[in-house]
Amino acid sequence: MVMLTLEGVGVTLGRRTVLHDIHASLTAGTLVGIVGPNGAGKSTLARAIMALVPARGRIAIDGQPVGALPRADLARRIAYLPQGQTLHWPLTVERLVGLGRLPHLGPMSRLAETDAAAIEKAMERADVIDLRHRIATQLSGGERARVLLARALAVEAPALIADEPLASLDPGHQIDVMDLLHDQARHGALVIAVLHDLTMAARYCDRLILIDEGRLIADGSPRHVLTPDHLAMVYGIEAKVDMESAWPSIIPMGRRHG
Ligand SMILES: Nc1ncnc2c1ncn2[C@@H]1O[C@H](COP(=O)(O)OP(=O)(O)OP(=O)(O)O)[C@@H](O)[C@H]1O
Question: Where is the chain membrane-spanning (predicted)?
Fold first, then answer.
């Protein structure tokens, strides 16, 4: 059972302290949404967990500090879907998704049958089978987003961090991706998703972490975190919050004045 611990995590980039004293314990089988306004520090937190930026405090996966793990080892434990990734190489979709298996391969080894099966399954789950022979750099924004998600799924890691996995997706594919992330969690993975769509966050996430100006403002169930007061304080909006119905929704109504 994977367990991610953050103790007093802080990050300074250049002269700016962009994360302050973040504490959280995240366990397997949970879909955790990271929410908060632009510039709050959500991506920085994801990057700190992946040991891509130096962080103060302690970030550990199953008791082992992420910064001390060999990169391939960390990549096998936590699959990472970065925000707005650009593609440089004209690879086919199938080969690009296959890159998700790299952390499992030795320096000279080739893809084995288990790798091929993982690639196939990941393409199926991200609904990109029909795109498999296309050149990834020639895809639409939404198609590319699903292919990159497939690459992260192909790792078959016990934990997944997806930074804005819904960006560029049409409503149908947004639902598919949230269903998929939810399903990964139900099958025992720890799934962390940076989300801007608060209705999706409310409907699908088991737990939300709300960040503003680098600080953790609230951590708990969507009902506890997505209150009108929190939304006013953090986003500066008046919102219609319905957490009672079977399909919770958060509708921003306007800017909060005064
Ligand atoms: N290399 C850097 N040097 C200085 N400041 C940086 C650097 N990278 C990011 N920042 C700042 O850190 C803060 C947090 O950025 P981050 O990308 O983590 O925010 P975010 O919550 O993911 O935002 P968004 O929702 O807009 O993607 C922002 O104010 C950003 O300008």
Answer: none
Q: Is 184 in the pocket of ligand 1 (CB under 6 A)?
A: no
pLDDT in tens, 85-143: 888 889 999 999 999 999 999 777 888 899 999 999 999 999 999 999 999 999 999 99
Q: What is the CATH number of domain 3-255?
A: 3.40.50.300
Distance from Cα 164 to the centre of ligand 1, integer Å: 14
What does the pLDDT look like over 17-31, one tens digit per residue?
Answer: 999 999 999 999 999
DSSP secondary structure letters along 144-186: HHHHHHHHHHHT--SEEEEESTTTT--HHHHHHHHHHHHHHHH
CA of 253 to the centre of ligand 1 (A): 26
Measured distance CA(60)–CA(81) in Å, rounded: 19
Q: In what order do the strands lie in the sheet with 3-13?
A: 16-27, 3-13, 56-61, 64-65
Share of the chain above pLDDT 70, in %: 100
Nearest atom of ligand 1 to the alpha carbon of 44:
18
Tell me, in angstroms, the distance from the centre of ligand 1 to residue 82's CA. Answer: 13
Q: Is the CB of 97 under 6 A from ligand 1?
A: no
- Domain ranges for the chain, please list them: 3-255
Residue nearest atom 18 in ligand 1 by C-alpha distance: 41
Does pTM surpass 0.80? Answer: yes
Q: What is the rounded distance in angstroms from the CA atom of residue 184 to the CA atom of residue 253?
A: 33
